[in-house]
Design a protein that fits this description.
This protein is mainly α and 450 residues long. It contains 18 helices and 3 strands. The protein has a 3-stranded antiparallel beta sheet.
Length: 450
Amino acid sequence: MKDEYMIYKLSDSIKSTSHIDNELFVKHNVKRGLRNEDHSGVLVGLTKIGDVVGYERMPEGGLKAIPGKLVYRGINIEDLVKGIEKENRYGFEETAFLLLAGFLPDKDELETFTRLLNQSMPLEQKTTMNILDLEGHNIMNILARSVLEMYTFDPNPDDTSRDNLMRQSIELIAKFPTIIAYAYNILRHSQQGRSLHIRHPKENLSIAENFLFMLKGPQYTQSEARILDLALMLHADHGGGNNSTFTVRVTSSSGTDTYSSIAAGIGSLKGPLHGGANLRVIDMFHHLQEVISDWTDKDEIDAYLTKMLRKEGYNKSGKIYGIGHAVYTISDPRALLLKEWARNLAKEKGLDKEFAFLELIEERAIETFMKFKGNQVKKRVCANVDFYSGFVYEMIGLPKEVYTPLFAMSRITGWTAHRIEELNFDSKRIIRPAYKNVSEDAPFIPLDKR
């Protein structure tokens, strides 16, 4: 038998061996995707880190949609963002402190914590050289590889004591921007023949400013750095149930080292159904800019969005990217905050018409989706944060290759906080859900009789 045919035969077997009838999930009361029938998540754990709220349970049963809320350590994300904005300063470092420590820092604590982050941003020389030598075609893979390499340079990589976990967390949060910026510049050099720039982080800059500096030099504005800082704050955590954070918690529950657990989270976030949504939104937006002749015509927009839902337009997936969320129903608080800042930046960049078009697409997409899907979805939908984040990153001048890595650069704060919690509550145990085997018994047949 030829090797190629063996591969074909094995892959063809998947059609039957991996097929499970939908009725069996109902029969055995299996919560597919850890989702209840009402689309709410199955409760599998407790946390003090963050809360994601999009509905409330009614006394008589069922769910009631409410405006979305995102809470970090008991503090509403809107209050956190508005409070820091009022004081006209950067807030990602403070957000990281809040998620890790569980309380807001005072001035001295924030200055010391920020200094610790800045001091930890430079990479080991060997890590930089390995990024240079091995290159790679996907920054998320380079990031995961670099994180695993950090294990080698850690004097106590397997130590899960509280102080060591906190030290590792601070170093990971600090080094992610450097790894991502270096990886992109090397990728650009190797694939596009552009000049290679390896800029060292500066100690007097915020993480958002340092990232822009390392990525593209001093050619960035304070408005760009501030909105990037906001995006980092908004993506820092989203409860314990999102796919990548749950991955970190599952792997952490086994007692594995920090770097293996975080690399697993990166692999989860890399998936297009999790971390790559804003790329799909911005591609869709550019397509709509081309096919919609009048950006103010609601009827023309509705007609094309309906074609998309019928799998007749755009990529024929039947989806309007950036619309809908697993938890949020009436509104995604992250989208509302980012949209507000995006409007101001669009005005500064002379992109008012483009922003107005995107905003109208949001309005019409929700209306069209509910009209087309109706009772099938059993809940309201809203624009999620990805609907605006890609547009924001494009206005800043960030390349698409760093969109998902930026998500990781922010979410590493939540990942590390959840890992610390998973390893430090009294009733901890390895996470091991059950799978019901629905295959039929089969006899063993001797080789010469098969």
